[in-house]
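Appendix B. Raw example, untouched.
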Amino acid sequence: MACTLLLGALGAGASRAFAGAVEGQVVLTPSDLAIHSTSVPNPYVGQVSASARTAVAAAAVDTIYGVAWIADLPPDPAPPPASARMDQLGQRFVPRILAIVAGQTVEFHNSDNVFHNIFSYSPPKKFDLGRYPKGKSRSVTFVKAGAVQVYCDIHSDMRADIVVAPTRRFALIGPGGRFRIENVDAGVHTVKLWLPSGERTTTADVPKHGAVVISSLMP
């Protein structure tokens, strides 16, 4: 399905010398929008009990639909940020999409009163955390950049995506499809976007100050 990216004029005021921003809007497809659907009945609701209601409330404010990042920059020399957290709540992963930086650790916490067994077979990071109960956490460090699909070996309906950006020059794509990547060095850069409907790639010529324009992006 087509995914169109529209970029407009950017204001001045970058925080670094000769650095601008990349700002855009992606047209979200039905498959992109469907990831936050709560219309599918939860077959384990009797076991998960109150956490299912909490998960539905959490899903209502979990409004990340994708990630955009500058793909051609060298790795950040600074230490990675503190650990991020992905909860298991009401037989859902919260947040549904998590963006981190290469080298960052993710804590997988279990808030359900049932066991979960979190795993991934994705090439950037393969892991299997084994079974663990409510109140426990297990952590994974993601060294390589790329998209990692996360599942539960016990509950086949559970799915999350962790997008590991190569640097901190990334931005979350919100419900309107909009994003803004700050402090991008001047020059021609490769811009990548990850969405549930697929990955998109284009280039952006970022000036020392001011605007960048990208006409469209097709799958």
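End of appendix B.
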